[in-house]
Structures are given as structure tokens and as C-alpha cells.
Amino acid sequence: xxxxxxxxxxxxxxxxxxxxxxxxxxxxxxxxxxxxxxxxxxxxxxxxxxxxxxxxxxxxxxxxxxxxxxxxxxxxxxxxxxxxxxxxxxxxxxxxxxxxxxxxxxxxxxxxxxxxxxxxxxxxxxxxxxxxxxxxxxxxxxxxxxxxxxxxxxxxxxxxxxxxxxxxxxxxxxxxxxxxxxxxxxxxxxxxxx
Length: 194
Known about the structure:
Radius of gyration: 21 Å
Mean pLDDT: 74
Number of strands: 12
Low-confidence stretches: 24-35, 67-75, 180-194
Order of helices and strands: HEEHEEEEEEEHEEE
Strand order of the largest sheet: 1-4-3-6-7
Structural class: alpha+beta
Number of helices: 3
Largest sheet: 5 strands, antiparallel
Helix content: 10-25%
Number of domains: 2
């Protein structure tokens, strides 16, 4: 009798394995694809004169396919930082553009994570000339994230592979941009986003 109960238990378990795998796949799909957090941080202040006619154009791109897994689980959304002010969230395969007043400025990327659970920032200090366009790429690394100035050819190639998020795109209502959790998460107990 014990032998037949064990056989039934094994058959039952084997029937559940495909259902469990399907459920896990669907949940992972919701976590990875359904929760991009991109948009303007309303409290972020742009430098004075950034809307002037002679402004420089900044394009920040995040398109590397190789950073997909690390993007989702190490540094979900990167904060774009201009002169010390958090202004925009950017996720994998997205890019945004904005203008900045000519002159010296700090352009950086900030994220939460890496080897220690804390905010980390990578910043470049550059001279921006009037009417010029500057392309930057950002990508996760072991510390958290990096930002590099790239040439126009590479910038246009990366743009072609990514999705544009307008600079005036707003974050979800009620989202706290200063929260260390910079991405909504799927709650398996309630079956919804938290």
C-alpha cells in the first residue's frame, strides 16, 4: 500500500512541475517587463538658463543588451544627476534628451545597490558648448553604474536600438523618488504591485 501511495505522490508532483514552471515564467515576465520606472523627477532642478536658445543638447542612452539581467536585479533604474540634482529615472533600453546652459556642469548617474546597499554615483565634469549635442551611455557595473561620453556615431546607433522617453514624462503619482527602492516590485502574497 505504501508503494502505491508513493507512486501516486510522484505522478501528482510530476503533473504540477509544468504548472509551477509556467507560473514562475509568468511572474518573472511581470517583474521584468511590466515595471519599468522612467520619468522626470519633479523636485529635480535644472541649472539656470537650460532652456535658453543657445543651450547644449544632452542625450543619455542606456541600451546594452548585456546589462539586462544586472539592470533588473542590481540597479533597476538609474537616476540622472545634473549639478547635484536628481532629475530623471532611466531604465534599460531607454534614452532621454534635454538641454543645458553652456558652461561647466556635472552630469552623472546614481543608483542604489552594488556590493553594499547604498546610493552610488558616477559623475563627469565637462564644458558644454552652445548649440552642440553630447551623447552619453550609462550601464551597470560592479559598483553600481557608470556614465561615459560617446561620439555621435555610437550615440545614434544606440538610439536606434532603444526607446525614447520624453524629458517631461512624469513618474507614477505618489512615487517617492528618494526611496531606496527605486522600482515597484511584484508582491506574490497580494498578487499585485507594491
